[in-house]
Specification:
Distance between the termini: 36 Å
Order of helices and strands: EEHHEEEEEHEEHHHE
Radius of gyration: 17 Å
Helix content: 25-40%
Strand content: 15-25%
CATH superfamily: PPM-type phosphatase domain
Number of helices: 6
Number of domains: 1
Largest sheet: 6 strands, antiparallel
Structural class: alpha+beta
Shape: globular
CATH architecture: 4-Layer Sandwich
Length: 227
């Protein structure tokens, strides 16, 4: 339903590097912000991903992307206020190194169950956590798109970092809220695990389901499978 697509992604199976970004703000700024984030972070990660523990590299790449987005916004007044969410995963053996900002999410599908690995940086998430809003009310709340942490529109942007375990047969899903606002977690679990290791089919079916359910936003999904 959107005229432009402000989502961007990167996936490199050999490196085990997966990134999803959902841009926002400014005249066409969202698309530009997510492009800058993906290009800056993927370039730095590709150049430096030789360490066993990539957390320092991840943090530095995110800081560099934040600076690059801000510089572009300062150079072009029409882009003032642009920013982007980010969810990033580096898979190293049985460990996933995660970083995220905003309301794009990471999920682990393990033994037929789904676990959300990230906590949304959003006004709605804060209100649900404090009891001001119920989980059932959250999807319909008029300020549901307000994010409290993002890349580009804040001087100091601190990502949440985590390391989680995954095992053979597990799936890792990174996605924008265009998917999760339209498809329940339990439905995502069924769509992904139901197609086995056919990752492209699983992604397409999840995106098709989101569109069938209303498709109000850009929808991006990146899926990895532990062989």
């Amino acid at each position: 339903m959107r005229r432009t697509n402000e989502d961007n992604f990167f996936a490199d199976e050999a490196l085990g590097l997966f990134i999803v970004a959902d841009g926002m703000g400014g005249h066409a700024g969202g698309e530009i912000a997510s492009q800058i984030a993906i290009a800056t972070i993927s370039e730095l990660m590709i150049a430096g991903l030789t360490e066993a523990n990539p957390d320092g590299l991840i943090r530095n790449a995110i800081e560099q992307a934040n600076t690059a987005i801000q510089a572009q916004a300062e150079a072009d007044p029409t882009l003032h206020g642009m920013g982007t969410t980010l969810v990033l995963a580096v898979c190293r053996g049985d460990a996933i190194h995660l970083a995220h900002l905003g309301d794009s999410r990471a999920y682990l599908i393990h033994n037929g169950s789904i676990q959300r690995l990230t906590e949304d940086h959003s006004l709605v998430a804060q209100m649900v956590k404090s009891g001001q809003l119920s989980a059932a009310e959250a999807p319909r709340f008029h300020l549901r798109n307000v994010v409290t942490r993002s890349l580009g529109n804040q001087k100091l942007t601190e990502p949440d970092l985590a390391v989680v375990e995954w095992n053979a047969g597990d799936f890792l899903l990174l996605c924008t809220d265009g998917l999760t606002n339209m498809v329940e977690d339990s439905e995502l679990r069924s769509l992904i695990s139901g197609s086995g290791a056919d990752l492209e089919r699983s992604c397409r079916e999840a995106i098709e389901r989101a569109n069938q359910n209303g498709g109000r936003d850009n929808i991006t999904a990146v899926l990895a499978y532990h062989e």
